[in-house]
Amino acid sequence: MINWRSITEVGYPTNSNGKYFVTDGKDVSTSDCYGNTHFKGDGNPIFTFKGWSGDDNTWEDNQCCSGTRIFDMKPTHWSPVDEINLPKN
Asked: What is the pLDDT of residues 32-81, one digit of tens each?
């Protein structure tokens, strides 16, 4: 079972190293996220979510010149991929 997090209720992921299942209520995809990491003097970095980096639904605004990446989905919920219990061999 997937434990979906509502973006309006809990916000965005805070781990830029994770991969996430995302959904807009109609489609499901996987995505990484990107943002800024601020390193304070106490050794506890703070990650600020900027956006979803996408997957196969991702396209670039200018194909010939590596333009801005556009993720066509507007996710409303997310869940870390590593929380899914996969079948064992």
From this structure: 888 888 887 787 888 888 887 776 555 555 555 555 656 678 889 999 99
Q: Residue 63 has which token pair?
A: 């194909």
Q: Which residue has the tokens 């600020």?
A: 48
Burial 40-69 (b: 16+ CB within 10 A, else e): eeeeeeebebeebebeeeeeeeeeeeeeee
Rounded distance between C-alpha atoms, residue 25 and residue 4, angstroms: 11
Please list, in sequence order, all residues whose beta carbon lies within 8 angstroms of the beta carbon of residue 43, skipping any fewer than 6 positions away.
Answer: none
